[in-house]
Amino acid sequence: MSKNNKRGEHVSIFPKSEPEEKYYHLYFCSTAELEASYERCRALGVPAELEEPRITLEKAALNRRLLLNRPLVSVTEQIIIPFYYLGVEVFPGHYQPPLFYILCDSELVALKVFASPYHLAVAKKTWVKPGIVLTEESCGTNALALAREHDRLVATRGEQHFCQMFRDWWCVASPVKDVDGFTVGYLNISLSVKLLGDTVLLLRTHLDRIKEDLLFVLDPDRAWARRAASGIGLVLKAQRELSPREREVFSLLIHSDRTSREIAEELQLKVSTVKTYRRRIYQKLGVKNMAELRAWYQRR
After folding, report:
1. Which residues contact 179 (CB under 8 A, 6 or more apart)?
2. Per its record, what are the GO molecular function terms (predicted)?
């Protein structure tokens, strides 16, 4: 991760004994993999001086893809919104540099571009927009095309791109997988500063969130079953399904051995009211009694 020092300069918070390169060097393509990509670009007639994609979808074709990929776009948008504003404080005292996201479908058609309002306005005046195709045939060697070719997370330095259009950008891209391991799209983070170590970790965090949240959109029952099996499902379900007062009772039940009478005294409720809340909690969380409730919670 990274932060700003007292002078406002952007610095890494990785230990000095563990340089950032340790966290991303394994994601760079080998020389042979890069050369193979360059050869494919030459065979496709891609000019090295290219400054914009050779293929861009018409609006109607893009809209059809957006409709097909609506869950992916919606989930991704909710997850990465906090990260694409200039100077955002991701964690207390920790800041991300300006980041530029491109979300693509499984065929590398850009579905959505995420950036700060300023950078998004600048991008709209250039070639960076939904509908561009990020394949080698269209854009030459780039992180998204390499991630698709090798089915893994890939990092690229500016000079490793085949075409001029990407030479100023360092990029990290990866397939976006669902919980069954199928590729549903690709996500790229580009930045103009050499902080790939931070960006690799950030992208991996996003990918994990997208995978799980996408399942909640497409198959909620299966998603809850996975959360329960992983040991955190009951707590998350409590946060989502219980009323504020029921969550208070739930917390006291879980974190203490208090009886209904003791809980009633603390919350200034009638004992019968607390018992009613307990029955509702059991019903909503799918457990039969207090012993089962605690057993579920202890698995988190």
Report:
1. 211, 212, 215, 226
2. DNA binding
Cα 298 to chain centroid distance, Å, stands at: 28
- Residue 168 dihedral angles phi and psi, to the nearest 5°: -90, 0
Is 186's pLDDT higher than 90? yes
Q: What was the pLDDT predicted at 23?
A: 43
**Residue 186: strand pairing partners:** 104, 175
Q: How far apart are CA 85 and CA 100, in angstroms?
A: 10
What are the φ and ψ backbone dihedral angles of 266, each rounded to 5 degrees? Answer: -70, -40
pLDDT digits (tens, 9 = 90+) for 128-152: 899 999 999 999 999 999 999 999 9
Average pLDDT of the chain to the nearest whole number: 79
Same-domain status, 150 and 108: yes
Of 66, 47, 222, which Cα lies nearest the Cα of 130? 66
Residue 38 to residues 1, 33, 79, 150, 160: CA-CA distances in angstroms? Answer: 32, 9, 34, 15, 10
pLDDT at residue number 298:
61
Residues 130 and 237 reside in one and the same domain:
no
CA–CA gap between residue 7 and residue 113 (Å, rounded): 31
Domain of residue 245, residue span: 231-298
Q: Looking at the domain assignment, is residue 224 inside a domain?
A: no
Residue 73 is assigned to a structural domain of this protein: yes
